[in-house]
Structure formats: C-alpha cells, structure tokens
Amino acid sequence: MTSPELDLDHKNLHRDEAETRATLVTVFDYDVTVDLSRAENLDEDTYPVATVIRFDCHVPGATTFLDSLHAEVHRVVLNGKELPLETTVGAARILLPRLQEHNEVRIESASYFSTSGEGMHRFRDPGDGRVYLYTQYEPADARRVFPNFEQPDLKARFTFHLKGREDWVLASNQDEMSHTIHEGVATVDFAATPPQSTYITTLLAGPYRQWTDRWDGHPQSGSDPINLRIFARDSLAEHVDTEEIFAITRSGLDFFHDLFGVAYPWGKYDQAFVPEYNLGAMENPGLVTFTEHYIPTSQATEAQRQARATTIMHEMAHMWFGDLVTMRWWDGLWLKESFADYMGTLAVDRATRFEGAWATFAHRRKAWAYVQDQYSTTHPIVADIADLEATRQNFDGITYAKGASVLKQLVAHVGEDAFNAASRIYFERYRWGNASLDDFLAVLSETSGRPMQDWSRVWLQAAGVTHLSWSEDGAGAVVHQQNPDPRGGEAPQRPHTFRVGRYELDDEGALTRTAQHGYELTVGAAAQPIAEVDVSAATDRVILLNDDDLSYAVVHLDEDSLAAVLKHPLADPLASATVWASLWNAVRDGRISAERYLEGAMAVSDELHDVGLHAGVLRQSVTALHRYLPAERRAEWAQRWGAVLLSSLTELGDGSDRQRSAVRTLTLLARGSGVLLEEMEQLASTDREQGWVLAPGLCVDDEVRWAALIALAAQGRVDQARLDTELEVKVDAMTRVWHRTAVSSQPIATVRDAAWHAVLTGIDAEGQTLSNDLLSATAEGVTASRPELISGFEPEFWSSLEQIWTRRSIGIATRTIEGLFPGYHDAEVDGVAVAEEHPVVVAGQSWLDEHSQAAHTLRRVIIEELEDLRRAVHAQLMERGESTPAG
C-alpha cells in the first residue's frame, strides 16, 4: 500500500488491499521466536515474540504494512533504522514506510494468550492443573501471535524458535534442528519450512503425551519414509486409540500417493488432538491439529470412529490441495475445502475398514448443504469474498458440503480418470505457489476433453439447490428440475448425471432395488424423459431419483413412494440415506408434517442398520418434535416416541452402537419435554461399578450419566449441590462442560439470569472469561427448557448485538448470538396467522431494518436465525391446518 492515510487500527483486511500488497512485495522468509516459558502462570496474559521478515519491494520508496493483533509492540527496526512507534504501530497494523528493493524488518512485541481458540490458545486441564498450548490461525489469526503479511498468496519460508518448560513437548511444522536447556527452559530451533502461507503455520507446547510410528514411503512417486507422531493431553492418554489412528494415517498416505502420484512434500506427519478447539481439524502441514472430541472418553460408536477417519483423510488431502497449491485469496477457499471434503470421504470408502462412507456423506454433509443453500443468505460456491469478515462467514455448508457434492457430480460428469489426472497435473504445475479456479478448470478441460466454463457457470457461479421431481405424460415418465434461488428468481438449469432406481418389497420386509437406469440432463435442460423406468403404481414400491446420490439435488418423492419409505426400510444404505435426506427436507419445507415424519421414524428406525443414519434420524426426530410440532401436541408425541425408544433399547443389540444412539436421544427428549424422568434418574444414579440399567448391555458411562443429569436439571429434578457433587467425582474437560450446561439449565429465574448474562458478556459469575467451549455449554443450558424464564431478556439481546460484534472476535460473537437467539419461543404462536406475525420475527426484522449499515456478517447471522424460526412457525401452523405447504 502507498497511502499515507492507511488506517493502522483496521482489522478487516480487504481483498483490494491484499491484491495491491501482493503486487508490491515478494516475501522470502520469516524467523520467529516465541517464548512460552511463563505460560503456566495464568496471571500472565501475554508472552514475548521476536520476528524477523525479509522481503523485496518492487517499487522502492513505497509504503506497505504488516498485520499484527498484538498486546504491545516494543520495537520496530526497518533496514537498520528504528521506527517511531507512535506513528508506526496501530491496533491491527504496523506501517513500513520508504521501502528499499531488499528489506529486513525486526519487531519485538508481546501477544495475548487466547481462550477463544484463535491465535495462541491456552488451556488449563481442570483435572491435573497442567497447562497446554496450541495455535489455530485460519483464516487470519497468525497475526495474533506474530506480525506478518497475513494473506495466502504471500508465501514464505518460516523458521520458528519455541521456548517452554524443559519437560514439555515443543513442536511446529518441521522437525527439530536443535534442542537446548538453560535454567529449566528449553529452546527448540525448527528447520525452515518450504514456502507456505501464514495461516497454516503452527506451534504446540505443553506436557502432551506422544506416540510414534512410521510410514514406509511410496517408491513410485518418490516419497521417502516419514515419521508419524500423535499428541494428546496426558490425562487423555488411556483413551487414545493410537493403533487405529496410525493405521488410518498409513492407509491414507498410501491411497493419496497412488491417486495423485506426487510425493508428500512436508517431511514428518504429526497429528495433535487439542482441547477447546474451534474447528474439527486444521491442515497445518507436518502438524495437523484436531479437536480432542475425536478422542472420546466415553463409549464411542462406529459412526464416531468413521467421522474421525473421514476428518483425518480430509486434512491429509489438504497436504496437496490447499497446502502445496493454495488459493490466491479467500474466494478460492471453496476449492480446497470442497476437494478435501470429497477426497476425505473417497479415501475412507476406498482405503479403510469403514463401510457406508458415502451414505454418511449423503445424510450428514449434504443435509448441511441443503439447509445452508436454502437461506436467502446463500451464495454461489465461488463466492465474492471482499474481506476477512466475509471469509469467516463462508466456512459454511456451501463451501464444504455443497462444493464436495458438486465435485462428486463433476467426477460422474467427466469421469474419475480425467479428474484424477487433472489433479496430478495441477499439483505439478502450481506446486509451492497459488492458483485459481480457472487454473484448475483449464487443466480439467485438458484431461477430459470437455469445455468446463458452461459447467462452472451453472454449478459454481449460481446459488440455490436443484429440486428433482417426476411426472407421467403420454410417452412415459419425465424428470423435472427446478432451481429456485433463495435470493430471488431462478438459477440456471444445470446438467446432471444421475440414476433412477425402482425399489419393491422383498421377502425380508425391506425395499430392494429391482431396476436402475442412468441419465444425463444437459446444460440448460429442464426435463429428461425416463421412459425406461417402470413407474407403474404398486403396493410398497419406490421410484428414487438420484439413486446412488451422484448429483446435488433435493429429491421429491411421489405419494406412493413416500408412503412406502415411511413404513419399510430400504435395504441399500446409500438409498436409505438419500431417502431420509429427502424426508427431512420435506419436513423443513412444510411438504410433509412433523407428525408423519415421526410416525415413519417410529416405524422404521429400528431397521436402519447404518449406525450413523440411525443416529441422524433419531436426532432429527427430536428436532421435529421440539421445533416443528405445535407446542400443545409435544407432550403426547414425546410420551409416544419416548416409549418406543425405551422399548427399542432391548431390541437394538446389547451394548450396540444403535442402542447407545437411542439412549442419547432419550436424554434429549427428556431434557426438552420432561418425559421419562424416572428413567433419567436411574441413569443418573447408576453406580459406576453397577453396569447396565434400563436394558441389557447399556453402558452408563460419564457421557450418558451427565446427559441424564442435564435432562433432570432442565426439569428441576436435581439441584446445584448434587451437580457439584457429581463433578467432584471426576473433574476433567468434558465433565466440566457438562456440569456447566446442567447448572445453567436449572429452571430457576436467578440461575437463568446469571447464565444468560454470562454468555452475553463472556464473563462468568466468578469474573472469569468464558472459553469458547464453556460459553457454548452455558448457552446450551440457558435454552434447554422453559423459555419464559429468559423471555424478558429479549430487548437487551437486540440492543446488545452491535456491541457484541464489535468488541469480541467474530467466532466468539457468533457463538454468543446464535446461543442466545430467541428462536425457541412457541407461546406467542397462539393467535399468529402467519410466521411474519411471530413477535420474535417482528422484532428481528425491525432490528434488520433499523441497522441496515451493521456489519454484513452480523446481519447474516440474524437473517439465518430468523429464517429458521420462520420455518418452524410455518410448520407448526401447517400442522394446525392454519397454513399451506411452503413452495
């Protein structure tokens, strides 16, 4: 930048600023020293950092800036000359004036420890008092630790030096080069990284337990053997399934080397499972970080283990797509995340023991995309990302799940061989650099022989989800597509490669495929004849569009098919996942009633043998009951559904994963509806040595016990003293979170008042800052039951929104607003004729009208919350016969 009026307090980096800076400078290397030797003293809220950056300027005499969200800057020396701090340093930037052709800047500063999962997060283990640290930067929080050029296209080599206790693990992206100890403080010097972006640098420090293994390499691609390590908190050591994690890691490295033919370029491969993590995981090359929720301390289901495997593979795919070749700016975020999401599922499907990976993708990832893509705030997969605030908001279901779904459609469209060949060429052509969508599409056109611009225009540059339905005409059946754009109007007609299946009831009582035919809808086509498919009516027959789930589309079932799937299971797990995704969309759209969905779930759920799908349908049934049924019908349905679930505990297999999903659902049902409280008391009172209760083999561990305690607390059946006593039995990171939710959920006005304001301010009753996990746990308790206890706080909620947004990080502000949003109300629905008359909708819309200049990202959070509420109210009115189906 060359403007002398540069705002040094401006935290929100804009794309045009980044583009200008990228044309002005070339960055070569960083040398960064971070001193965490006093991190155990929780009274110390900062730590020292020394940074050296070497870079060239292509316009000598120009001015630019570094990004820096520091506690304090003590010294800035540019090309040997000390700069005046009062005119050089702002709250978010450091001015670098009068640059030479070759430059070196040295900064001595102090940075804040974080409790929000942004920057250098510090966590004190409540069980043993030990302190653990790690960094999390995406998209732009490396500047919270050390000053830098915080944009993905200014890659450089990074040499880190890390100080900490002599008995700590100290780790970074690369291997140690030296390790010295002086007066109890260790200093580790790490090897320089290859060229990489700032947001994927990382540091880890603390008394982590570590395990080691080795991968044998891949001679065909020229990849040498590499060392593997796993890190986790010491108190979690007994729960770390190192054998399975290492096996998945080795299988993934084999798979991606076979697929890409490009050697892993980052040396070692470490994986750290860390506390209070904001994300599922982060693809830091050489040291991937994961939420430690992937190390469950209670009984884990096969679906949870599969989810961990998928995340491991997702992050590993990033080593090539995202780390080796990186987007120029954050409007290319979707490509790396969509690619990793697709490849993560593909790797689990092809290279691990887990079955049903694509079924899980259909009913979990796509479900997320379908919800996100029907908000009026939706955006094309290739989004217009003007600044960092917009970037943070686009880590969403469009960027990840819709993008991955569309890539799956693209692979079906051009063929797997052409897609994989394009990936290999792309990595070789742009390795260590930055590239764009056009670069990838150009390579794909080379390998497939197909022009990709029309495909890109309708799939990547238009918003909204396709709806597929069929009808009969004189010549047979025809598939129709509609592409409503929730922002208004209609999106272009899209090409689809898809299959249509016919299912009929077999002798085992399951719907089994009897025929399948494949079709292509071309660009611009609104309909496709499917004359080969027998669509004739029959008892218990299903016509399933998008069979095998190749395309991204909400499937509409005809009435005969709908009746069949609500009575009988489908034998094929992927078809079953596709159908239940269709049913859930129909509930949310008001095309079928919540009661009908619940009837189907009660009839079929015991026959859903895919553990993840079974858990998903049960979870959605609770949402259907609590949000989409009218309030006056919930008690009756909760009793019915609770009785069915309780009975199913003895039918799902002793100690089985599905039995565990059923008991988890029971606790959620009891929390919100007050049913089965005697059974909750049995779960909560089970002696830890006693074994199962309610059903043979049912494991009543810490998770189940605390879930029951939260349900009892929300219904006023346990008090603070008992909850505190339960916590004293075992204090760890998870029991502390569960305890916080249980305490906050008590239906006592003063308790809810204190909890609500703790979330609003981010400060608890003891004056301590709530970490990200504890803030979310408190908010979960606040809204657990009895919304009338906090309804009086709504005016304060609306008046506090802008203050929350400006004073807190986007991540914590979003958690706060979503956690406290008053979308749980139903009492006011009486007398409301349409959703727009609901008092919260009225208040929210008034706030939007009066705050048209508020931050776009804040407005987006409010708009999406309001649209969820509108859907819920509309569905309730429809169930009462007071409204008509949406769309």
Explain the overall architecture.
With 887 residues, the chain is α+β, with helices and mostly antiparallel strands. Among the domains are: 1-206, Immunoglobulin-like, CATH 2.60.40; 330-459, Neutral Protease, domain 2; 790-887. The protein is built from 27 helices and 28 strands. Strands 1, 2, 4, 5, 7, 8, 9, 10, 11, 12, 13 and 14 form a twelve-stranded mixed beta sheet that branches. A five-stranded mixed beta sheet has the order 15-16-17-19-18, with helices on one face. Strands 26-23-22-28 form a four-stranded mixed beta sheet. Helix 4 (302-318) crosses helix 5. It is globular, with a radius of gyration of 28 Å. The mean pLDDT is 93. It is an enzyme of class 3 (hydrolase). Its EC number is 3.4.11.2.
Alpha carbon gyration radius? 28 Å
Shape designation? globular
At the first level of CATH, the class of one domain is Mainly Beta
Low-confidence stretches: none
Q: Could you name the CATH homologous superfamily of one domain? A: tricorn interacting facor f3 domain
* Count of alpha and pi helical runs: 27
Give a quick account of the main beta sheet: strands, pairing sense, barrel closure.
Answer: 12 strands, mixed
Helical amount: 40-55%
Strand % is: 15-25%
Write down the CATH topology of one domain. Immunoglobulin-like
Number of strands: 28
Derived from helix and strand composition plus strand pairing, the structural class reads alpha+beta
